[in-house]
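hey so i finally got around to running both of the ones u sent me last week. sorry it took forever, my laptop kept dying halfway thru and i had to restart like 3 times lol. anyway pasting them below in the order u listed, first the sequence line then the C-alpha cell line for each. didnt double check formatting much so if smth looks off just lmk and ill redo it

first one:
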Amino acid sequence: MKKLFTLLTLLLVISFTARAQRISLGITGGFGHSWYSYVGDKTFHPAFNGGLTFTYSSTQHWAVGVDAKFSREGIRVEKDDNTFTSKLDYIRIPVRASYFLNDYTHNVRPKFTLAPTLGISIGANEAFENAKGDKTSKDVSDEINTIDVGASAAFGVNFRLSPKMWLTTDIVYYNGFLNVYKDTEDGEYYANRNVSFNVGITYGIGKE
C-alpha cells in the first residue's frame, strides 16, 4: 500500500508538471482535536499538523494535489479521576481532489475537497495518571501499525493575496480505516479520527 501511494504520487507530479498550466507550491499547517473510534469518556486532545502542499489545475473549477506533512494525533480519556493520553506521530500524505464553486478570476474561492490519505507512523507514546497524581509513560511505537490508511473531507476558502499568492483555509475531517494497534487485549478496533482547521500559503508557478 505504501509503495502504491508513492508511485501514484510520483506519477501525478510528473505528468502534471510536464503539462504545466497552473501549478502552486506552498506550506500548510493546522490545529484541531483527535480521538479513536469506539472509545467513550474521551475529552479534548490537541492535534496539529504542518508541511508542504502541491496543487495542479487545468480547469477553472477542478484541482488535484498532494501534501506531505507531519501530524500529531492520538486520544485523551478521563474516567474515575484517571487520565489516559496517547500521542501518535505520523507522516501524512493526502492525495486531494478539489472542486471550486467559482472560477480563477475571483479573489475569494470556496471549495470542497476529498482526499484518500496514507499515514506512516514515526513514533508513539502513552501516559497514565491516576487519581493521586502518580504518572507513568512509555514508548509504544512497536505496538502501533506502521501504515494507516483513511480519507478526509474538507470545506475551505482560498483568498487571493497577490496575482499568484493565495491564503488557503480549510476545515478538515479525517476518518481512518485501519486499526491503530497491531494487537489489542480486548480485541477492539480503534481507528484514528480527527478534525482540524488548516491554514496555508501557496504560490503559483505555472501559466495563468
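and the second one:
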Amino acid sequence: MPSLLLVDDHPVVHVALEAALMKSSRSYSLQAVEDDVQALAQLATADFSLVILDIGLPQSDGLQLLKKIRRHYPQQPILIYTAQEEEIYAHMAWAAGANGFVHKGSRLEQLVQAIETVLAGEPSFPAGAMAEETQSAAGTLLTPKELQILGLLSKGLSNLQIAEMLSISNKTVSTHKKNILRKTGAGNLLELVAVFRELTP
C-alpha cells in the first residue's frame, strides 16, 4: 500500500484528499502534517512513497523545503499541490526538483491522477512547465527595475530604505512591490525571497 505524506496547513485539504483517495481503485495510507518541521521529522523516522507538498505554507518557505527534502532524500518522490500561481510556480517547482505539480484550483480527481502518475515513476506537470529556460517565467515578466527592487526586498530592506537608495518615492516603490507580488503570485516576503533565489543563479 503506497504511503503518502501530505504537508499542508489546511485540515480541509487532508479530509478532501482522503475522501478522493477512497474512491480510487488503489488503497493508500495518508498521513498529514502542518509545517516543515513536522514534515522533516516524519521523513526522518518513516519511509513514504510520495510527499504531497504545499509550497504556500504560511510559516516557512515551501520551495526551500522542497530543495531541503531533495538534498536529504534524493530519491523521494515529491508532488506539489498549491494555490500559488501555476504559470510561474509549476516551472519553479520542476526546476527545484519536484516530480509533479497540481494547482489547488484543479479537481481532486486530477490530484489523484497525478499521484498515480508520479508513483508510476513519471513526471506530472502542466504543459510547458518542464521547458528548459534560461530564466523562469517570473523573470520574463518582471522589468529590470522590478528585479532590482525584488533583490533589495529579499535582503530585508524596507520600502523607505529602497526609495532612498534608488532616489525614487516611497509610493513608487510600493507600486513596484504590488506589481511584483501580482506577477509572481507571491503572498509574503518569504515567497518573494524564494522567487529572487530562483531568478539569480
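quick thing i noticed on the 2nd:
The chain is about 50% helix and 10% strand.
anyway thats it, ttyl
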